[in-house]
Write a structure and sequence with these properties.
The strands form 2 sheets. This protein has a 5-stranded mixed sheet with strand order 2-1-3-10-4. A 5-stranded mixed sheet has the order 7-6-8-5-9, sandwiched between helices. Helix 2 (about 50-55) packs across helix 10 and helix 7 (about 170-180) crosses helix 8 (about 195-200). The protein is an alpha/beta fold. The protein has helices spanning about 5-30, 50-55, 55-60, 75-80, 90-100, 145-155, 170-180, 195-200, 210-215, 225-250, 250-260, 270-285, 295-300, 305-310, 330, 335-350, and strands spanning about 30-35, 65, 85-90, 105-110, 120, 135-140, 165, 185-190, 205, 220-225. The protein is globular, with a radius of gyration of 24 Å. It contains 16 helices and 10 strands. About 45% of the residues lie in helices and about 15% in strands.
Length: about 350
């Protein structure tokens, strides 16, 4: 027969176990999944994707974020409208085309507040200015880069009729070969392609004018009909993203170490890896508004002119009808000390990946 003391002990133990068993399912149910589609889910240039995961920022928000494979021929907007993705990243051209088609969407966060697209030529070639491109051939990553060429040429009074435009894709090896073989004279593409040209042994002269850079290059977009349903999860995601974006500004060495661990193949040439993450941290992902990622109505109003001239949209649209800054304030509600502490913990646990820049 158990003593009264033993009985009390077993009763307390059983009660404690019951609390644990009841608590565990509740915690599991609190974890919410979010499906997100970004242009590069494994790229040093888009480091917040996995830095937020490595530093536990998604988990802190009770989120499990599934980044869908970006290597798809299906338009990103289709993933959004059929609800396979809760958030997608679109460039300005894709946003304006969707708005023009009557899609009920909103830009809620400017992922890159400067455009990653650029126009470059071999540094040792005869072309030294945009005006020198008249009669030349410009290779492009995709048809969307027609806008990049159009804006660049327009700064010196040229049009796309004054050049030959050809789509050659975004493979570094293909671009380098085309430049060496002189099948193209210049290249218009994104932030990943231009460094790849340099890595391929061709120093470049960047001819990108400010008119191209001064627009939100990549943007998180949501369906209007799902804002209420997803608001809590999306705010948590954006807060984690903000913290991860800020990580590189606070400690570039440790953030570079995280990318070196997750995408080591992009660090075979350390100088290139360092160039890309510095460009992302201090240029492409740099906070340019009062609150990070805050949609800019005036910028969205001004950028529509080239799309209108090229026939990409049929009219000018009021930015108030397709941007929504209501997610931003809550997404900035965190302390810098939280990011610093997470970085310090990761650095202590992963010393082999942290090297001097």
């Amino acid at each position: 027969m158990k003593s009264r003391l033993e009985a009390k002990f077993h009763l307390k133990t059983a009660a404690a176990l019951a609390v644990l068993l009841l608590a565990a399912p509740v915690h599991a149910q609190d974890v919410k999944e979010l499906n997100v589609l970004v242009p590069s889910e494994r790229a040093t240039s888009d480091y917040p994707v996995f830095v937020a995961e490595e530093l536990g920022f998604y988990a802190d928000e009770g989120l499990k974020v599934n980044f869908l494979p970006s290597d798809t021929t299906v338009p990103y907007l289709a993933f959004l409208t059929n609800q396979q993705a809760d958030l997608v990243v679109l460039d300005p051209a894709q946003v304006m085309q969707a708005v023009n088609a009557g899609q009920e969407i909103s830009v809620i966060y400017e992922f890159m507040q400067t455009a990653p697209e650029g126009l470059a030529v071999p540094a040792d070639g005869p072309i030294k200015a945009i005006a020198d491109l008249k009669g030349k051939t410009i290779g492009m990553a995709s048809d969307r880069d027609t806008v990049t060429a159009f804006i660049a040429l327009g700064t010196v009074g040229l049009t796309t009729d004054d050049v030959k435009l050809v789509v050659i894709g975004d493979s570094g090896a293909v671009i380098v070969k085309a430049l060496r073989d002189k099948t193209i004279d210049a290249y218009a593409g994104g932030s990943n392609e231009l460094p790849a040209i340099v890595a391929g042994g061709i120093p470049i002269l960047n001819l990108t004018p400010p008119e191209i850079s001064q627009n939100p290059g990549n943007n998180f977009v949501i369906l209007n009909s799902r804002k209420d349903e997803l608001r809590e999860s999306v705010v948590g995601f954006l807060r984690a993203w903000n913290k991860a974006s800020n990580a590189a500004v606070l400690d570039l060495t440790t953030t570079a170490g995280i990318t070196r661990k997750i995408v080591p193949e992009q660090w075979d040439d350390p100088s290139l890896g360092n160039f890309i993450i510095r460009q992302s941290a201090y240029e492409l992902l740099l906070q340019r508004t009062r609150l990070r990622g805050e949609p800019q109505p005036d910028v969205w109003a001004n950028l529509q002119a080239p799309f209108l001239k090229l026939g990409e949209i049929s009219q000018q649209y009021d930015p108030a009808t397709f941007i929504d800054g209501s997610f931003i304030e809550a997404a900035m509600d965190y302390k810098t000390s939280e990011v610093k502490e997470a970085l310090a913990e990761w650095r202590a646990a992963n010393p082999d990946f942290v090297t001097t820049q």
